[in-house]
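Kindly draft a polypeptide, keeping tokens residue-aligned:

***
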Amino acid sequence: MCSRDGAAAPAAMEAREPLRDLRGALRAVLARVREGEPGEGCEPFDLPRFWDALGQTFKVTSQEATKLSVAFSRPPLTSAEDCRKLSEDVQSAILAVATVYYWLPKGQGTTLRKMVRDATTEVVEGMIQLTETILSAPLESLSQEQLISTGGVWEACEQVSNLPRGEYNQAAVASALAACLGVVKDALEEMERALVEGQDPYSDIMEDEELGFRGNRDTYWSEADRKLLSSCMGLMKASKACLKKVLGVVKAYGKADSPEQIAQLDDLADIANEISPSVDELALSMYPPMNQLAVRLNAAKLASVLKKVLEITKTSHVCPPSEEGWVQFLTGAVDHNMNKIKNFTQGQL
């Protein structure tokens, strides 16, 4: 076998040439999936058929990733012909994944489409990463990077089983809201822990007459800070309650029988997606040393987002008259906490 002598290098270069072509083809597919829009299609859309086809293409892609990785993990050196066949099979599998994604019409909802697109791009990106790892790895050896890249493709392909498959866009929106709620819960719990742990460590020491202060106030909240924090926490709790209630009515009353209903659900998901980053920004500004004006601005941004969510909920099909009470209550809670924050920070303006 000549793979260990000088003659191996040209052979190796030739054998891997199809992988370079494959990498270029996969990058082109990735760009199209990221930027392109699915068509509406002439035939009636069949959702169960779509999910079956998507699951099958992801499964085949996972298998092709395994074959490709194994072929470049041990001697003998893969021939140029075998490499070309492997590359063609991988490209066919990825094109099938992209093709099935394009079956999903825009009319089924932007939230559902975004979730499927994200899953599709993750698979294509994983395969590009695996191809690049093999191209840069030593000959006839299975590197740790190649193992990780192969596992990354498997994991990306398995994500298809976690995609929401309920009533079209309704299940996708419920899934998106649940994810937002999880992030907000975590932020709230973290801030509650910080408040318990962040007591003034010098509270039992009299102020130093010469220095005029106790210890390092960059590490704890003043009494004025804590008054402001209480209302900020009220706003964060309102965020959690808002997402929990909206998720409940989407699950109970959400429909995707008409374009109007699908669009209303998408609007809810879009605005609810703004809650968790707004909560995070507020929480970060609440840590000492606190800039009260920054806290006020971040609180105002969160309050504005929450009121938009509540307004969109109230005017959509997911909010029958029996649900209007909590919408009104939470709107009042947001206003109450925001007014207190304004009062506490009036001197900062």
